[in-house]
Amino acid sequence: MLQPTSALLLVASFLAALPVNADGLYTKKSPVLQLDQKGYNKLIANSNYSSIVEFYAPWCGHCQNLKPAYEKAAKNLDGLAKVAAVNCDDDANKPFCGQMGIQGFPTLKLVTPSKKPGKPLVEDYQGPRTAKGIVDAVVDKIPNHVKRVTDSKLDEWLSEDEESPKAILFTEKGTTSALIRTLGIEFLGSIKVAQIRNKEVNAVEKFGITDFPSLVLLPGNGQDPIIYDGELKKGPMVEFLSQAASPNPDPAPAATKPKDKASKPSEKPKPSEQSESEETAEESKPSIPVKVPTSAPAINTLAISEALEAACLTPKSGTCVLAFLPQSEEPDVELTGDAKDALESLAEVAHKHAQRKTKLFPLYSIPADNAASKTLKSGLGLSEDAQTVEIVALNARRGWWRQYDSSNGADYGVVRVEAWIDAIRLGEGSRNKLPEDIIITKEEPEKKVEHDEL
């Protein structure tokens, strides 16, 4: 006769062997959207919002461990972006998971709207499997349709489509928050949204702004501005702006259907909805796992000391960001670990600014065999460990430098690296005084004196 303990183990083993409920890990009350292929095409691929999608199997231990953090991320991103999941153990979803290139569980994919509606950019999420890591990565991908306006550009911006409604956020911050970016998405094509900093004195006085942040609605057609006095939450802010224009339905692929009809006027059968859905999935799936190097060109390398000195260490040199690479035991060996992550993150940041046509100071990689590398690191008091990567920003003309903080296990992911670079661009954060002997000066005056004496 079986002992009670043995019987319990036998029952547990039997239950574990049973098929998992088709509903998967997430219940209907979960903040995580549960999708199949049709839902993905409708709610994710054709949305103006960014999303993150988990492809999982209910029996996967790592998927079960991820669930609490993923649901927490979904709650934190409510109204800002979409957090969804696809159960690849469901037979109906297996072809779709195959199309999306899923080879292991859980696989998380970031989905970002592109200029072509219905054809988003899909890339693997490779950050930490924590709620904060997921939220930071998704927030970073929220499209920004908010115009940065200064005193000198205000009248020009206001004169554009004068009869159309506009909205302005007056703020003390130099960055564009996720909340105001989502308002830009919500009213894309109907209300132009701008952001003005408190230091733009003329604009602040023009609208009588005394508190920051303040949201102002310009209804258009010569109507007086209206200042919002409610909570700084998406729901009431959308309701406030809705008095001038209706928010977009979600998803809102505004121009897709007219274009499709114009290009294919004869194709109007009812079954087209299904075929269009399948076609969208084919177009939106990545042919291979998307990584930064495939879309972002590598940053420039300063291989010799003369190049480093000329670019960043003269008295007239502006801001440079330098990635000091670790010593490689063998030549032409591909970098791994933190060094690889750092270069990929810097490359993606540079690529973003190039695409947006926004000005960014130069970013360079410095190989360990550059003769000036060790000298410069020593002069700045950086670690001389030949196996680590270091990122610093310095400005020889203004005499300051700043180190990227990678202590306490902090990573070199693009979200954190970009936040560090943005802080430098906006003049935020502390800086160190650059040692005087770091700057390379040509001793031309001494040469002239010697020549005169001769």
From TrEMBL:
Its EC number is 5.3.4.1. The keyword Nucleus does not apply. Pfam families: Thioredox_PDIA6_C, Thioredoxin. Residues 257-273 have a biased composition (Basic and acidic residues). Residues 242-292 are annotated as: Disordered. PROSITE patterns: THIOREDOXIN_1, THIOREDOXIN_2. SUPFAM superfamilies: Thioredoxin-like. Residues 6-144 form the Thioredoxin domain. The keyword Isomerase applies. It is found in: Endoplasmic reticulum lumen. Residues 1-22 form the signal peptide. Its main location: endoplasmic reticulum. Keywords: Disulfide bond, Isomerase, Redox-active center, Signal. It catalyses: Catalyzes the rearrangement of -S-S- bonds in proteins. This is protein disulfide-isomerase.
